[in-house]
């Protein structure tokens, strides 16, 4: 019999009030993990101006995800900075 284990990244209610600080490749933000599959980015977050490409020149997963988030929330972003939560 194979013993099943729980994922270590399981969401817990205590996490929703704890801020996570992101500072990576020109992006800075404070993020709250609201629900199991929902995060909230605080107003005033700075987004990277340059899109990082893979070594072969193609867009990577994180770049494609970032572009989709920017397109979905165009009204909340001005001059590479969030103006709404």
Give a brief rundown of this model.
The chain has one helix spanning 61-72, and strands spanning 19-24, 27-35, 38-41, 77-78, 81-82. By secondary structure, the protein is an alpha+beta fold. It has a 3-stranded antiparallel beta sheet with strand order 1-2-3, with no helix packed on it. A two-stranded antiparallel ribbon has the order 4-5.
Describe this protein's structure:
With 85 residues, the chain is α+β, with helices and mostly antiparallel strands. The protein has one domain. It has one helix and five strands; from the N terminus they run E-E-E-H-E-E. The strands form two sheets. The chain has a three-stranded antiparallel beta sheet with strand order 1-2-3, with no helix packed on it. Strands 4-5 form a two-stranded antiparallel ribbon. The radius of gyration is 16 Å and the shape is globular.
Distance between the termini: 47 Å
Fraction of residues in H or I helices = 10-25%
Multimerization status: single chain
Q: Characterize the overall form.
A: globular
Mean pLDDT across all residues, rounded?
87
Model regions low in confidence, pLDDT < 50 over at least 5 residues: none
Percent strand: 25-35%
Topology, number of strands: 5
Order of helices and strands: EEEHEE
Number of domains: 1
Strands side by side in the biggest sheet = 1-2-3
Treating each run of at least 4 consecutive H or I residues as one helix, how many helices?
A: 1
- Cα-based radius of gyration, to the nearest Å: 16 Å
Biggest beta-sheet profile: 3 strands, antiparallel
Structural class by secondary-structure content: alpha+beta
């Amino acid at each position: 019999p194979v013993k099943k284990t729980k994922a270590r990244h399981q969401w817990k209610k205590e996490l929703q009030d704890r801020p996570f600080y992101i500072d990576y490749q020109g992006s800075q933000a404070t993020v709250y993990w609201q629900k199991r599959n929902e995060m909230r980015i605080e107003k005033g977050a700075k987004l990277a101006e340059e899109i990082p490409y893979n070594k072969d020149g193609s867009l990577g997963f994180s770049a494609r995800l970032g572009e989709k988030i920017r397109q979905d929330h165009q009204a909340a972003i001005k001059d590479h900075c969030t103006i709404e939560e």
